[in-house]
Amino acid sequence: MIELNRRLLLAALSTSLFPAGTLAALAAPGAAIRLGTAQDFSFSGLAAQARSNAARPYRAPQPRASHIIKDIDFDAVQKIKFRPDHALWTGGPAPDPVSFFHLNRYSTDPVTIYSLDKGKAREILYGPDYFDYSASGLDSKALADLGFSGFRVMDGQGKPTDWLAFQGASYFRSSGQDAQYGASARGIAINTAAETPEEFPRFSDFWLEDAGPLINIYALLDGPSITGAYKFDATKNGAVVMNVHCEVFFREDVPRLGIAPLTSMYWYGENQRPKNADWRPEIHDNDGLAIWTGKGERIWRPLIDPPQVMTNSFSDENPKGFGLIQRDRDFANYQDDGAFYNKRPGIWVEPKGNWGPGAVQLVEIPTDDETHDNIVAYWRPDQPARKGGSLSFDYRLYWQNSEPAYPSAVAKALSTRLGRGGIPGQNPWPRDKHKFVVDFTGGPLMRMRQRYDVKPVVSTSRGAIDNAYVIKVVGTDRWRALFDLQVEGSAPVDLRMYLKLGDTTLSETWLYQYFPQP
Fold first, then answer.
1. How many CA atoms lie within 13 A of 450 on its CB side?
2. Domains along the chain?
3. Distance between CA 292 and CA 203 in Å, rounded?
4. Residues with Cβ < 8 Å from 65, sequence gap 6 or more?
5. Distance CA 394, CA 403 (A)
């Protein structure tokens, strides 16, 4: 499974790229990088190339030294060290240096990378001297024609860490505000959780440009059903913000097209305590999908680990934004001082221009551990993706702790807990009732003292709701909504709730998909 491989590889790369004692070399002049001859480059030319490619049959990349690459596993990746003096942009104050990834079992396809300056592109010529193989036992001579598997942008402020990386298919990621990787983005999603097998197009070529303080990244996408031209500009100032422009061209009909796809991991949280097989209280990169609809409604859908693959669609027109967010940022709720799930960034997608009608789709895949990326969210346009056609989109990505510019007029849902229904201590307790407890904070609730006329407006797709009420949690700024769901059978139940005071809406809309337990 490609998501599993990506997560294992990124865990290895997070600690393996630079040998100890080489940090000072990041700023050293006279880098050993080698460049090819100059060629003219423009984005319009890149788009024309992608369009031309779409008119020809797809050609899969040819493997290189596959008999060696298949043995470069998780442990071997950590022993191959990139030589910092071979990085791009080592001599100047900006942008940050760019280092390169080695091919391995999990990322086997080489990519071509160019340095771009004033409209002239020069290929970064690969050689085994870019890497230190001394601890790996590999023969560098056998890897002379290997190529790179991707690149990452290093922190140029004296830290041996990166803040942006592109590697594998069309995946890319950023460490956000707290310098901790988590969820990833992709250039495109093709037939995710559809009847036909999922396709993973890849970025085959990159052009990197110093546009200080921005880094411009151009990419050529190629796959059996699609080609594309992409431009990313990225900047880091606490949060990482990236503008994306893409033009995609279809070789074949695509039944399920995903624009601005996000990929994450959710095993369990406070809402699914029975799945807590590990000693840590919660394990997830993000705990919910946030949506800002075209009509201005704010929605929060807590993530779940479902019993079977589930795809939920949230229909909209010209959405203002959506994203996978980690709202719970309290270390005490995770107790993980290695993975630091409390520091994982959220990713927010802000469409630019009108995207028309479509739906935000959320795909949740069952998992039994934290090595699988089992959550995908993307925009699915109503406009069909037909062979010979094309589409273009513009959007902005925010890699940060919460959604940007959240309106203070409504409160956020902060946590969701489930338990048996009825009254505590009641005996026997009603086995067909299930209690839901949702905490809200922020917005108008921050200015309110305890009162008892705040009402939860709750609806359900089946079953009945009773015993619904709201209280303020003593000694906190949280308001707690509680209700019981009475339902029979194990079929999923869709729940919806928000808080009101008279005719005034106080909170965003909380949505939940519940699978009753026998």
1. 6
2. 2-400 (2.70.98.10), 412-514 (2.60.40.10)
3. 30
4. 103, 142, 143, 145, 146
5. 18
Residues 422-481 have pLDDT tens digits of: 888 777 778 789 999 999 999 999 989 999 999 999 999 999 999 999 999 998 999 999
Contact predicate 58/114, CB 8 Å: no
Cα 433 from Cα 487, distance rounded (Å): 7
For residue 476, count CB atoms less than 10 angstroms from its CB and return exposed for 0-12, middle for 13-18, buried for 19 or more.
Answer: exposed
Q: How far apart are CA 339 and CA 9, in angstroms?
A: 14
CA angle in degrees (0–180, nearest 5) for 490-313-370: 70
Task: Provide CB contacts within 8 A for 227, sequence distance 6+.
Answer: 50, 51, 53, 54, 201, 220, 221, 248, 249, 251
Cα-trace Rg, the chain = 24
In the structure encoding, which two tokens stand for residue 265, read together? 């991991």
Residue-wise pLDDT tens digits, 185-223 = 999 999 999 988 999 999 999 999 998 889 999 999 999
Neighbours of 337 (CB within 10 A): 8
Residue 339's nearest CA partner among 6, 15, 2 is 15
Token pair 């704010």 is found at 298
CA dist 356 and 317 (Å) reads: 5
Residue with tokens 């771009």: 116
Element (H, E) at 69: helix 66-69
Q: Is the pTM of this model over 0.85?
A: yes
Q: Which two tokens stand for residue 67?
A: 């008999």
Residue 5's φ and ψ, nearest 5 degrees, are -60, -45
pLDDT > 80? residue 261: yes
Distance CA 23, CA 151 (A): 18
Q: CB–CB of 414/366 below 8 Å? A: no
- Cα separation, 261 vs 474, in Å, equals 40
Q: How far apart are CA 408 and CA 287, in angstroms?
A: 21
Three-state DSSP string of 340-357: CHHHCCEEEEEECCCCCE
Dist. CA 82–CA 73, nearest whole Å: 16
Which residue has tokens 């056998």?
142
Rounded-to-10 torsion of CA 438, 439, 445, 446: -170
